[in-house]
Amino acid sequence: MAPALCAVCKTARALIKRPKNHSKLCKTCFIEVFEDEVHHTITSSQLFFPGERVAIGASGGKDSTVLASVLKTLNERHNYGLDLVLLSIDEGIKGYRDDSLETVKRNAVQYDMPLKVVGYDELYGWTMDQVVETIGKKGNCTYCGVFRRQALDRGAKMLGIKHVVTGHNADDVAETVLMNLLRGDMARLSRSTSIVTGNNSSEVKRSKPLKYSYEKEIVLYAHHKKLDYFSTECIYSPEAFRGSARSLIKQLERVRPSAILDIVRSGEDMARLVPGESPSSCSCKGKSKAPAEVAEDDIGGCGSQNGRNPGNEMAVMDKQLRENEEHEAHEIDVAKSTPRNEGGTANKKWELPVRTAAVASKVVKGQVLGNCKRCGYMSSQDICQACTLLDGLNKNRAQIQI
Amino acid sequence: MASSNPAGSLLKPCVKCRAQEATLDSRSQAVCRDCFTKFIAAKCIKQIGLLAKETPTPHYGQPRRFVVGLSLGPCSAALVHLLNENVDFQLARSRPAPFTITAVYVDPHPARKAEDDILEGYRQRYPRFTFKRDDDDGKLDAMLNSLPSAASRSDIVRLLTRHILLAEAVSHDAQALLLGHSTTALAELTLAETAKGRGFSLPWVMRDGVVDVVVSRPPSSSLTSSPSPNQPALLPPPKETKTKKMLIYHPLRDALRKELITYLSLVDNPPPLLTTHIHHTADNDKADKKVVSHKDLSIDEVMIRYFADVEKEYPSVVANVARTTGKLVRLLSGDSSSSQKLCGLCGAPLDESGDERWRGELGIQIQEEDHGEGEDGSGSGNKKGGVCYGCERSVRG
Known about the structure:
heterodimer; A: alpha/beta; two-stranded antiparallel sheet; B: alpha/beta; Rossmann fold; two-stranded antiparallel ribbon; globular; tRNA binding (chain B); sulfurtransferase activity (chain B); Cytoplasmic tRNA 2-thiolation protein 2 (chain B)
């Protein structure tokens, strides 16, 4: 039997079965199709403007390495006119980050892009190794996640760049959609799917050009393009809620390859269905919520497969929800008994009010964005999360020194 | 059960009544058998009470008419049992029966004896209710076999079952269609529909409320003589259709599946169950779980398996999923009279702005067409044929 031919060029032998739709392609066509799809994402979402300076959040892992490679290729092929810079965060984790930073340094040479490394120690006075020494391995990913989010923005600011692209892929987005459904976090659900976060009013906007790219295809692309990337996971990453969502996604993908993209689609659509009042807006719900709250999209920030949430998060949440249920039994919900004009309450079924997307999104973004009084970083609280966490850390350090 | 013992001498008194030995764990409280069954019944009665307010009696003193979807699994069985208890309770107080029930079992396969026997068991156990089996002698079976995968068949069966139940409710002139979804089932449904790309229509599926039912005239097409809901599958609804409104209600939305299974094990003379029913695998049999090939699994089954574990360990997480997604709003009216286009397969409003925004489509249909097609050129003309994103996916694989 003759070998199967590539479904696109119909001349070369098909060597790759695309994870996304199981079509059989040759190596050259796969690489081209992958790049075309990212190009399509970039142009249809109007991510960039000519002459824009863009920082690529580079960890040395497969996603950001592929992102850098594809952006460089597309920038040259389609004349985007972008000024691309690699921006790396040094969390200060020996045996993990120092090695991956070496990869980024090689990438900078390979792709002929300037590289800026921003360290947690220079930004916060703490390396992650020191944080872990102080607070232990449990919960340290919260610190790392909060710190990194700011670090990328601050690094970009140092470079005078207003746009940071990250290597988040379709699996990451799908995972976040399921995770937020599992957590019942509608507000975050509506934020997590958009391709661009932040806008003209925020100093630095973020975007995810690989939002529709499958993780498996990213790995294939890196493999066939022989890209130089670092594949060790963070040594501190624990089991997490995210892990549960991730394994579920892997199962779904096996049943129906398009499932990942389908979840992303559902997430985008559901973002528009989130009612004005988010269930997590009540401050009494969630003692553990304060440190976990993030400024914008809560999407697996570190290169780790496991994410940044402390272990047994599901158990903690279950316990908390149970406590809430008990408390609810003792209180009268005034809001429930008063008819609200903005949303169909559970008891009002015949006439569900028609709401437009504009109204829905406006209400969800109701959090007032200000600036941290201490560091000036955007925050909905007086003191931003990073500063709050730092306060705790510094208190500990002072005691230790005495 | 040592119910006659005074509270002081009990080993572990029920935290609710303090009069009986606690033998069960109900939401981390040790309770007795009676308090547990009362607790479950109360969850159902509360919803039935709300439903009664929504549905005025057709004529004074006349009972309401409800159609119940029957799967022969534990949750819909528990629903039938609880509804029967409710009627018993009213009659015992010399009040008129509050409602009549027609329970419909939709079977995509040609008649099988096991199901018939179980339905007969229902008829004997609950003589006040009517039990009906809805199948069409294998015509549907043939159509389903032409679908590309087990996951695809499962999706379509779910959609058609819903259509058929709605059509039954309309043809019985019922005031509501009652579905036996537990909290767990609703949480599964939420994530399964999300995974099928059906996030947009979730509020129509999850929430209690009115939906439009497209009722077409008796067979005018030469394709088949089967009743309306079975046929339109891959075609837009024919011109001579009209729509009716039907209220869908989920009276067991506040009870977990494991609680309903426990409930059934406690009641006297429980209804018969179909042992091959998928929900039984979710119950305990772990060893059974690992062996199935992913080729034979559906998205729904993956979710059932997943939530069986979550329910065991973290029941409140399950409840929270169902509760919060129950708050998603229906973005479009879903009212066909307002020129809103409905999906020809699932009947949910077509989300045109969602299609327009969607950027993730390219490359999917590379096998059929040359690549390079613009956004949302999602395939072979189906788009214009009025099928939503999720249904397109379901039909293709």
